[in-house]
Design goal:
mainly beta; Tachylectin-2, Chain A; 2 domains; seven-stranded antiparallel beta sheet; globular
Length: 335
C-alpha cells in the first residue's frame, strides 16, 4: 500500500491545520464499468444501488445490493426531446440525483459541432438536464443548464476555438442545500487540438430548485454570482481535466480528488464551498487515476457523503484496452 501525508495551510474552527494520512490499495479490475465515458450516476434505490453509465449512444444501467453484485438492466431509452439542433448533438449522462418522490435527475454532457477534423477536443460542449420517472428506463431532456462564455478570458489567437463547458462532476451537498457542478473549460488550437487555459470551473444551484435552468450560478472568483447560461466563469482547479468532490464525514471537510492534463493525480480539501478556498494540491496521491473518477463509501454506498474508508473507481472508457478499476482508500489520523 502507498502511504502519504497531508497538511493544509487553512485553519479549521479549532485554529489547527488539518493533518491526516491515507493508504491507497492495489488496483482491482472492474470490467463491468469498462464502457464508462463520463462521471457515473450512483443512487440508492431502496435496498439496492442503481448505477448508470454512458458511452454514446449507449446509456447502461445496473442494479444490485452493492457495487460487487450489480446486475445489468436494459439500456436506458431517450425520447424525442433529445433533439439535434446542431445536427450532430450527442448526449452522455453524468451524475444522478433522486428526489424524495423517486424521480431521477441526470446531469447531461453534450457534444456537438464535429465539423472540425476529429483531433484533440475541437468539438463544442454544453451541459443539460434530463429526468426519469421509471428508474432510468426512459429519459426526457429538460434543456440546457450551463453554457460557456467565450469572453471569460482572452482568445490566445484567431486560430483558437472555445471548448465550451463539459466533462462535469456532480456533487450533492445535502448539508448546505446545494447542487454543485465542477466542469472543464479551455481554448483549443484548431490546427493541432492543443488546449490552453484549461481549468475546472464550477456552478451551483439550490436543491429546492431541482436543478432547473435559470437556477444555476457560476463561481466568478469571489462568489456564486454569474448566470449558468452564458455567464462568465473563473478557475477553481487550474490545469485539471477532472475534479470529483465529496464531503468527508471522517475529516468533517470537503475533499477533492483529480488529475491534471499531464496525468498527475492530486488530493486537496476545503472547509466551505461558499468560498472555494481549496488547500494546496498534494500530488503524492499515486498517479493511477484515469479520466473519470468517482468515490463511493465502502459501507453505505453513498457517492457524495463518505466516511473514513471508500473506493475510488477510475475509468478511461477502455481506450487502448485499459480497463476500469477501483482502489480502496482509507483515511488515517496523524501527521
Amino acid at each position: 500500500m502507498a502511504i502519504a501525508f497531508l497538511c493544509f495551510g487553512w485553519k479549521a474552527a479549532a485554529a489547527e491545520p488539518i493533518s491526516f494520512r491515507w493508504t491507497v490499495g492495489r488496483d482491482v479490475a472492474a470490467p463491468q464499468f469498462n464502457h464508462e465515458d463520463a462521471d457515473a450516476g450512483v443512487v440508492r434505490d431502496g435496498g439496492n444501488i442503481f448505477v448508470q453509465l454512458a458511452l454514446w449512444p449507449h446509456w447502461y444501467r445496473f442494479s444490485g445490493p452493492d457495487l460487487d453484485h450489480l446486475n445489468p438492466l436494459s439500456e436506458a431509452r431517450r425520447d424525442a426531446s433529445f433533439n439535434r439542433p446542431h445536427g450532430d448533438d450527442s448526449y452522455w449522462t453524468d451524475g444522478i440525483w433522486k428526489d424524495p418522490a423517486g424521480r431521477l435527475y441526470a446531469i447531461v454532457h453534450i457534444e456537438y459541432d464535429y465539423a472540425h477534423p476529429r483531433m484533440g477536443f475541437l468539438w463544442r460542449r454544453r451541459i443539460g438536464l434530463a429526468t426519469s420517472d421509471d428508474k432510468g428506463a426512459n429519459w426526457h431532456y429538460e434543456g440546457d443548464i450551463l453554457t460557456t462564455n467565450p469572453k471569460r478570458s482572452r482568445r490566445p489567437s484567431p486560430n483558437f476555438v472555445d471548448f465550451g463547458c463539459g466533462d462535469t462532476y456532480l456533487f450533492v451537498d445535502q448539508r448546505n442545500g446545494f447542487f454543485y457542478l465542477f466542469y472543464m473549460t479551455a481554448w483549443v488550437d484548431a490546427r493541432s487540438g492543443a488546449r490552453v487555459n484549461q481549468t475546472m470551473s464550477g456552478a451551483r444551484s439550490p436543491i429546492t430548485a431541482r436543478m432547473a435552468a435559470g437556477s444555476w450560478m457560476k463561481w466568478n472568483g469571489t462568489g456564486w454570482t454569474e448566470p449558468g447560461l452564458g455567464g462568465a466563469e473563473a478557475d477553481i482547479f487550474p490545469g485539471a481535466d477532472s475534479a470529483v468532490v465529496h464531503f468527508n464525514t471522517y475529516l468533517n471537510t470537503y475533499i477533492a480528488m483529480g488529475r491534471d492534463s499531464d496525468g498527475s493525480s492530486w488530493i486537496t480539501a476545503c472547509p466551505s464551498l461558499d468560498r472555494e478556498q481549496w488547500g494546496t494540491r498534494n500530488y503524492r496521491l499515486p498517479q493511477r487515476l484515469y479520466w473519470y473518477n468517482w468515490p463511493v463509501d465502502s459501507v453505505t454506498g453513498d457517492r457524495y457523503e463518505i466516511g473514513q474508508a471508500f473506493r475510488i473507481y477510475s475509468s478511461q472508457a477502455n481506450v487502448n484496452g485499459v480497463g476500469s478499476k477501483y482502489m480502496n482508500v482509507t483515511l488515517l489520523p496523524g501527521k
